[in-house]
Specification:
This protein is of the alpha+beta class and about 450 residues long. It has helices spanning about 1-20, 30-45, 50-65, 75-85, 115, 140-145, 200-215, 230-235, 280-290, 375-385, 400-410, 420-435, 440-450, and strands at about 70-75, 90, 95-100, 100-110, 125-130, 130, 155-160, 165-170, 170-175, 180-185, 190-195, 220, 245-250, 255-260, 270-275, 295-300, 310-315, 320-330, 345. The longest helix is centred in the first third of the chain and has 21 residues, at about 1-20.
């Protein structure tokens, strides 16, 4: 009888607690319902939770029902976003994206901590400090763990060709120039736009003016790895590459259509554009407009496929809201959202298949007479960099010894033919720089070929 009484008492208590929320007859999920649930949680939850935390969770829950580009940014995420837009940030210095739920290194920035630590395009970050990464859902949260104050270290677990290794990287200020330019082959301009930051139009203008003053009338525009940026910036930049006329069409949720136009001061007689899987958003707008107007030839791989426009609403507490408010279309009225821009010429980036290169062990010492995969890793790198090796694969014999000796001599290391730790690290760092050089850039070589026709 006592057990029955206790059960009845508990049942009545539960009924009283949930009646207002769950058994109030017909109701709609409105503000009253929301506050009823919130009040029920704050009064009865056995754990620790604040009202502010519940509001945060509720707002984030709203954004989970929207597209992946609409996000609620906490203070740290908002700060990181603003740093990237303004071209100033602290971290390891690598372009990173998410593919199939994995965090990939797109490209280490030149002379960055990431490049100095030996990270390579195609590496996958599978762990940060002692945390093993699962399928990535919120890339901002993960990137914020990699970023940090100048001079502090972050330990990453890297997967390369199915093998894992750990690397400590000292964070630094990443001085990422949005625009780099130079003359190649003596008569071709090369302009690389890494991101459409707020100041990019002035930088591109400076690059174009400098090249034109040198008599350059054909150019390569490199948009590989460019994640996008400001719509107004890309429209302003388009005048150098797209004839006068429509460059992008923006259609908002209410059906309003706004056309954006190129001022049409095309700078070069012949143009090629390099794109890849990580060219997104604004960079797709520019490359797509060039393709639509037949102003240049696109070379590389199909782009990311982001055809939506976001606006940023800064909040007084330092947080922010990034919301998709419209979709954009190319001059031909085609959408590239979830489709991307297909290049005119499909072409791999590297002259070699980097996935087949054996990982080098930098913490060993190789002598004449040694054999195995460690030797083969050294041989592969030296041969690709132009050193002559005729020894059988994996055998450290005369020609491998001489190649190591020549490499040491070329790089200011005492030349004694032994692949010590210093030499192995130097070989790997030189190799990473070499495979991202013009010499190994198959897409760039194709561009030069077309421009010289």
């Amino acid at each position: 009888m006592k057990k029955a009484s206790r059960f009845l008492c508990s049942f009545v208590t539960v009924m009283v607690l949930v009646t207002n929320v769950a058994f109030a007859g017909d109701f709609v999920k409105d503000e009253e319902f929301f506050h009823g649930v919130k009040n029920y949680i704050t009064k009865n939850y056995a754990g620790e939770i604040t009202e502010e935390e519940l509001y945060d969770a509720a707002v984030k829950g709203m954004f989970e029902k929207l597209d992946k580009h609409s996000i609620y940014m906490d203070k740290e995420s908002n700060k990181s976003f603003n740093e990237s837009v303004n071209g100033k940030m602290y971290g390891i210095g690598a372009l990173i994206n998410v593919r199939d739920g994995k965090l990939n290194i797109v490209e280490p920035i030149e002379d960055s901590p990431a490049q100095k630590a030996g990270l390579m395009p195609g590496d996958i970050i599978v762990g940060i400090e002692d945390e093993r990464l699962k399928e990535i859902e919120d890339v901002r949260e993960v990137i914020n763990k990699i970023k940090g104050d100048k001079g502090t270290n972050v330990n990453l677990t890297i997967s390369r060709n199915g093998k894992e290794f750990k690397v400590d990287i000292k964070r630094d200020e990443i001085k990422m120039k949005a625009v780099k330019y130079r003359v190649i082959e003596g008569n071709i301009g090369y302009i690389k736009i890494s991101q459409f930051t707020i100041n990019v139009a002035d930088e591109v203008q400076g690059a174009v003016d400098n090249l034109k003053n040198q008599g350059i009338n054909k150019a390569v525009l490199d948009l590989r790895g460019n994640p996008g940026g400001s719509l107004s910036s890309v429209v302003e930049v388009s005048k150098h590459f797209v004839p006068k006329g429509k460059v992008v069409i923006v259609k908002d949720a209410k059906g309003k259509v706004v056309n954006h136009y190129s001022k049409g001061k095309v700078a070069f007689d012949k143009l090629t554009v390099l794109v890849d899987e990580n060219s997104a958003s604004a960079s797709e707008l520019l490359s797509g407009a060039i393709q639509d107007t037949k102003s240049g030839t696109l070379i590389g791989k199909t782009t990311y496929g982001k055809g939506t426009v976001q606006t940023i609403l800064p909040l007084k507490n330092g947080e922010g809201i990034k919301l998709t408010i419209a979709k954009y279309y190319l001059p031909s009225d085609r959408s590239i959202d979830k489709v991307g821009v297909i290049p005119d010429i499909d072409c791999d980036r590297l002259c070699i298949d980097i996935s087949k290169i054996i990982e080098i062990n930098k913490d060993t010492k190789l002598l004449k007479g040694d054999a195995g995969l460690d030797v083969l890793a050294v041989q592969e790198r030296l041969k690709i960099m132009g050193y002559d090796i005729s020894d059988p694969k994996g055998l450290y014999m005369d020609s491998t010894f001489k190649a190591v000796e020549r490499f040491q001599q070329d790089n200011g290391i005492y030349p004694y033919g032994v692949a010590d730790i210093t030499t192995l690290n130097k070989i790997n760092n030189k190799f990473i720089k070499y495979i991202t050089s013009d010499e190994m850039d198959k897409q760039l070589k194709k561009s030069i070929e077309i421009l010289n026709k």
